[in-house]
Amino acid sequence: MRLEVRRLGLVDFDDAYDLQCRLAASATAGRGFLLLLEHPPVFTLGKNADPRNVLDPHGIPVRRTDRGGDVTYHGPGQLVGYPIVDVRRMGVRAFVGLLQESIVDLLREFGVRAWTEARRVGVWASRGKIASIGLRVRRGVSMHGFALNVSNDLTPFGYINPCGMPCAPVTSMSLELGRAVPVEEAASLFRLRVGGGDRIPRQGSCGGMGL
Hints:
Layout: E1 2-10, H1 13-24, E2 31-38, E3 42-45, E4 62-64, E5 71-74, E6 78-84, H2 92-110, E7 114-117, E8 120-125, E9 128-138, E10 141-149, H3 173-177, H4 183-195
Parallel strand pairs: 1-2, 3-4
Antiparallel strand pairs: 2-6, 3-5, 6-10, 7-8, 8-9, 9-10
């Protein structure tokens, strides 16, 4: 499959969702998209999430979405990846596994020991959960994706039960490594790993995409 990777920078959650919907309409078995971006602070709830897992939003916007999973937080410094691909040949479970292992491999290259757990979706490191995954698949095409904590402020995770788990510890690449990790550094390496580097067309800022 030809995977077109777009590095968008900081994009409002609602604008990013609208873009995903437009791209999903043109995704085929031979052509897919991967959006790599950051969001301004926002809490998102999966379609079946318990709203009581938002303990106190402290003024941060809350959005109900059509993805799986419970509640999570997005903010600057967190790498969000939205793969918009036809997963019918691979299957949803295998696709989730591929996303998880891609994140584990990325973290390994940075020197972060990370792993997956058989009964829970996501990626963990020594101090807690470092990446969350939540998808929606409609007509065989995926939307939403993963959120990897790179250098974002983890304080807002204390305002929720992350992924529906009370007092669940969370961590970031910067916390694990003891140094500031630029989100662009993680995004660039992830893009190289999954998209073949400069052979994949790259878009500019979100403003240039008509968001």
